[in-house]
Amino acid sequence: MSSACLPVCRYMSTSCLTNARSSISVTHNSSSRSILRLRNSSTNHGLYSSPNNTGSRRLFSSSNKPEPSPPSSSFDFSRIASFGLAGGVAFGVSYLFQKRAESKEEDDSSSSSNSSGPVKPSAPITKKAYFDISIDGQNAGRIVMGLYGSVVPKTVKNFAKLCEGSERGGFGGAGEVLSFEGSMFHRIIPGFMIQGGDFTHHNGMGGMSIYGEKFADENFDLAHTGAGVLSMANAGPNTNGSQFFICTARTPHLNKRHVVFGVVLDGWSLVKRIEALGSASGRPRKKVTILKAGILQEQQEEQNSKN
Fold this sequence. Notes:
The strands form 2 sheets. Strands 5-6-8-7-9-2-1-10 form an 8-stranded antiparallel beta sheet, with helices on both faces. It has a two-stranded antiparallel ribbon with strand order 3-4. Helix content is 32%, strand content 19%. The termini are far apart. The protein is an alpha+beta fold. A hairpin with a 2-residue loop joins β1 and β2 (138-147).
């Protein structure tokens, strides 16, 4: 034992040594046991107040009796080994639980990314809308979306009319054409969603519906089931306007907060290309513009024939 440990051993109380001996489960040699018995039989070695001076605490014994030898190194080694073993087991168990949790998170993340394509429609498709997209002025292709008019007819009508550009409105009765054409995907977050529809401010602070500046949440019957879901962006309850987003992953935390009204049917590779242009802050690295929007007539004609 090093000299730095000797004062600590001299100050240890009889009760501390007794507890230490009872907590060690490994077997000691006979010399170690005799040292412990010597410790326990001593009633006063200067660690507490002496009978002649009860008002003071002495650090060292005033008697001429030789101080007992400190515990042998084998005793200290056993105690250290026991604590080390217990700590190692605790660390190992904690590490296993942590790795298991990380593995589960990775599995959940990989399953929610849905890189193979969008989810299947969760309601009947009553209309098909499209966006023709350009990236930094270059034609990039078309995205086709199916709309759930039988579940959220008011929300679908708003989106469809904004795709067609057939409604007029504006602040202060300006009579401006309400249309997605020329607007941008202003907020893009990889692994989350791409957002657009602000045709007044082009930065997420504007936009308006065909019913006025805002309209109420129609219902929350449909869930955000995965990548490809088309949903209304808002600034809180009952603040729907013209802004929308397309999910690129599972977003169950948005359920009961945003109105789902459609799903991507075609052009998923273009959605993923747009997603790759985003950032953690949401600011796009390139300008993604809706060159043209509309409703596919073949779907409308099919719907009319059914009626």
